[in-house]
Design a protein that fits this description.
Length: 193
């Protein structure tokens, strides 16, 4: 039992040394061995974007200067909100009619002659369906709200990455100089930093 603890402790210590040996990606060394700050890294920018999006949907996208995303977020939030409000009002309407009919009073689905246009079973089924639709609209609204917060935070993280042309992949096709007549297919991948 002691040997397992020692092995685990040694392995954790061994692998933890690699965590501190990473270099800062925002600093570049020049030929004179001077360190020049290439870009300003803002560690709180993703948290600010997420906070702004949590306060008001779309504000995190505006903070990230992705102005075109804000109307998309507003439309995405407005759609389930509309369906939630519509289904909730219809649910209340059918619920009130159901309660009145069960109490023996006249409801909106009974005409002046006392004829019932909607049966009691239909009122029950309509309530169930409208409540389910209302709850689904609420669920989708919450999912979209959380996703727009996550999107603003991830976008703020990605804005800070170095996207220099030196960080690109360049595929090239090389012909075999010995067997020029026989076609060969190959793939070479070159990357530079």
């Amino acid at each position: 039992m002691i040997s397992k603890k020692i092995i685990i402790t040694i392995s954790v210590l061994f692998f933890s040394f690699h965590l501190f040996s990473q270099k800062d990606s925002t600093k570049v060394k020049t030929k004179q061995n001077l360190i020049i700050q290439e870009g300003v890294y803002k560690p709180l920018a993703p948290a600010k974007a997420a906070f702004y999006s949590a306060i008001f949907p779309g504000l995190g996208q505006i903070y990230n200067k992705k102005y075109w995303k804000a109307p998309l977020v507003w439309g995405a939030i407005a759609t389930p909100t509309y369906f939630y409000l519509n289904n909730n009002s219809e649910y209340k309407r059918y619920r009130t009619a159901y309660k009145l009919r069960k109490s023996g009073f006249q409801d909106e689905f009974t005409n002046d002659l006392g004829e019932v246009t909607v049966s009691l079973e239909t009122l029950e089924r309509a309530q169930e369906q409208l409540r389910e639709n209302r709850d689904l609209s609420l669920m989708w609204g919450v999912i979209i709200y959380v996703l727009q917060i996550v999107e603003a935070s991830v976008n703020a993280h990605l804005i800070q990455f170095n996207t220099d042309d030196n960080l690109s992949l360049k595929p090239s096709f090389v012909q075999d100089p010995i067997l020029f007549d026989a076609p060969k297919i190959g793939f070479t991948l070159k990357y530079t930093f």
